[in-house]
Amino acid sequence: MITVFGSINMDLIATTARLPKPGETVAGSGFSTAAGGKGANQALAARRAGAIVHMAGAVGSDSFADGALELLKEAGADLTLTKTVDEPTGTAHILVGGDGENVIVVVASANATVNEADAVAAVDGMHAGDTLMLQLEIPAASVEKALAEARRKGVRSVINIAPLTPDAARLGRLADIVIANETEFELLAGKTGIESAEREEAMKKLHAETGHTVIVTLGAEGVVAVHEGEIHRARGLKIDPVDTVGAGDTFCGYLAASLDEKLAFPDALRRAAVAGSLACLKRGAQPSIPLSSEVEPRI
Known about the structure:
Helix content: 25-40%
């Protein structure tokens, strides 16, 4: 079983031929809304990968709430631990350029009300061997409390240290598995401008210090990880990306689900990398997350 303790948003997505420079206005070519939030995205990915998933978080009492939860409900995720509060539902304002790259502004709103009591409630029904997934779009104190509760109960904890916050490095060291992109890992390692070989040495050092699994996603270059003293690498698929929004969350959710199924670590890494690649072929965070039936033939 997987419990995701994290954010739930409505994504507001504008597309344009190219992303604007600071101070510049460009013409848009389209607009859409889609359910999002790193927590909800990862929960949906894990559910579509086949895991039993509980989503713990918060939405507002506004018109965005139903849309933000719609795909999770359709997928059969358990929303018992998702509360409704007297705040707006969280939103993400996303610009997507013609090359598939994006810039995002996240407004926490209801997500900022997720507290330490919610963290205790999220972990309370879990058992040793279950998996707790976290990100950093809810308050740091709540994430830290959930990590402490997971450790106390023998629950495996997975944290994606995104978005990059001042607490990311500290919280990343508290989880059993930490997932970061290249920039986020530099914060974790305390050094910028890390090259490939140096990155692997820094990953080995962090792994030796903490004993935790360290995973760094590398975009089109795939993913590298240190797990149980060994370096592992996996490549995704060669694709022409349409929209990279949600690819990282798809990777995280599929990885957690694969480990929950007790797949061997290298197999779980490859499955997650393939799923992340497929998520780049459609627009939107949650609409782009592939089903397990789409992923398996491509592994």
